[in-house]
Amino acid sequence: MVNQEDPRVLRTRQLIRTAFRHLLRRRGFDAITIKDIAQEATINRATFYAHFEDKYALLDEVTEQAFHEMIPEHVANAQEFTDEICDQLILLTHQYIVDFYRICRIDSNSMAKLVDEKIKKMLQQTIERIFLKGDTHHGADKHHIKIAAAMTGPAIYGAAHYWLNIEEKDRTDELVDIVRLYVMNGLGCIVNGDEYR
């Protein structure tokens, strides 16, 4: 087992991630082998396996790292889920999806599905942390907060992903207006304990 804090380990992992990203730009995920990644990173296969179980584990880490780099600190550490925070999460998610599909060759449904699920999950966790910190959940129990986050993260992701394929996809202001209205009105009912009648 490698020491994750060792600077040499950190450098090697970064070499592997960088090599993988370069390969994704040139080929599809399914065509990339561990041998390809090792050659691109100028390491041997044994070194790769000392750091990652397989290319799926590497994809998982690269996706998570990209997500954390995408979310600014003031959004990740927000104390309340406001309209502004909602807007930023919508725009950041849309930009992440655009960048991902532009940079990576998506010829693999399994890769696209893994990345989609990972981003939805991390977006949901980020939103849940904000809900739990904020005053917006007065009166709501933790179960309601988790349900609200479970609906909000995928709703934002789904709308941002859908927006890629419409004619006016550059009109992100319209995307934000539509999604914010849906999300914030829905949250008002769930988080505050209101019921639809």
TrEMBL record:
One of its GO terms (molecular function) is DNA binding. The keyword Lipoprotein does not apply. Residues 33-52 bind DNA. Keywords: DNA-binding. Residues 10-70 form the HTH tetR-type domain. It holds the Pfam family TetR_N. InterPro entries: DNA-bd_HTH_TetR-type_CS, Homeodomain-like_sf, HTH-type_Tx_Regulator, HTH_TetR. This is TetR family transcriptional regulator. It comes from Paenibacillus xylanivorans.
